[in-house]
Amino acid sequence: MELQERIKQLIWKNTDYRGDIFQESRLINDLHLESLDLLMLLNAIEDEFSIEINGDDLEGLYTVSDITGVIQKILDQKAAS
Distance (Å, rounded) from C-alpha 45 to C-alpha 41? Predict the structure, then answer.
């Protein structure tokens, strides 16, 4: 399963949102995620991909595409080390 699909599955599994999810979907405005939803989602992402998302990366997470980009960056760094 590709990265984008895995992220969608994690959103559906770990939040109350059940609608369509696109890369440009905004986490708060479109998916209606609240702070607790975001924390649960980020924990699930860290567990799923065996990564740690640091505070600097959290600041720019507004869309599903932002999450995808951060995960890909962390996975690429992990693979390079």
Answer: 6
How far apart (Å, rounded) are the C-alpha atoms in residues 63 and 39?
15
- Per-residue confidence of the chain (81 residues) as pLDDT tens digits? 799 999 999 999 999 999 999 999 999 999 999 999 999 999 999 999 999 999 888 888 999 999 999 999 999 999 998
Looking at the 3D structure of the chain, how many domains does it have? 1
| Residue 73's CATH number | 1.10.1200.10
Residue range of the domain that includes 29: 3-80
- Give dist(CA 78, CA 60) in Å, integer: 20
Q: Which three-class secondary structure state does DSSP give residue 78? A: helix
